[in-house]
C-alpha cells in the first residue's frame, strides 16, 4: 500500500485512518472464520449481533515516522479469546513497525433505536449458518491482561495518573455530529473516541501555534455508547508537552446521564520535520 492523503494526518500516519482500517480487517476476518457476513449475524432472540470493540492498544514507534508516498505492508491475524470475544493483531511495516491490538465482544441491541448494547452470554451465541470456530493460533498480546486490569480498578489511578476530581486539569464538552461521527447502525464509531480526546487535547493543552505531536502509544477501553444529539464530556489529566513529549489520561462520559463511555491513555511526542 502506498500512503497518500487519505492515510495521512498533520504529523504522520493518521491514527484515525489506521484504526478504521484495522477495525475493518478485524470484522472481515470474523466473517471469514464464522462463515457468515456481519449483516446476517443474529442471536437466539433474532436480534442483530455486532462485534463491538472493548479494548485497543497501539504500540511501537511514533506514527510520525510514516510519510507521503511511503510503501507499507499491513498484516492482520485473529484469535478467539472465548466464544464471543476475539483478539486481532495488526502490524504496519514500513520505515518502522507499528502494532495495533484489538479486542471485540459480540453485543446486541434489543431495538434498532437503542444506544446501549448487551454483551451476549455463551448460551445465546450461535445461529444456523454460523459455523463452529476453526482452530486458530494463539496471539501473544498484553491487551487481554490490560483490559482485565482496567475493569477491576476503574476508580483508581492508571499509569500513575488519577482522574479524581481534584486532579483534573481540564474538562471539555462537545456534541458529536451524526453525519460524521456515527456509523451506519446509529452508534458512535469506535475510531471517533480518540478524535474526541485529540480535540480536547488541542483545545485545552496545545492551542494555536503549537506543533502537532504524533502518537507513540494509545490504550482505549470502551464501556458505553452515545445517542445522536447527546453531548460528551472529556476529562483529561496530564500536562503540556515537556521536552517534546506528552502523556495524559482521559475519561469520556455522556452528558445526559454521566455514564462513562471510555478510558483513554495517550503518549505522544514531537518530531522535527
Summarize the structure.
Helices cover 18% and strands 32% of the residues. The chain is globular and about 55 Å long. It is built from four helices and twelve strands; from the N terminus they run ββαβββββαβααββββ.
Describe the structure.
There is one protein chain. The chain has 273 residues and is of the alpha+beta class. It folds into two domains: 1-141, Roll (Thiol Ester Dehydrase, Chain A); 153-273, Hotdog Thioesterase (Thiol Ester Dehydrase, Chain A). The protein has helices at residues 15-34, 143-152, 178-181, 192-206; strands at 8-9, 12-13, 49-59, 73-80, 85-93, 97-108, 118-119, 170-174, 214-222, 232-238, 245-254, 260-269. Strands 3, 4, 5, 6, 7, 8, 9, 10, 11 and 12 form a ten-stranded antiparallel β-sheet that branches. The protein has a two-stranded antiparallel sheet with strand order 1-2. A hairpin with a 6-residue loop joins strand 10 and strand 11. The mean pLDDT is 87.
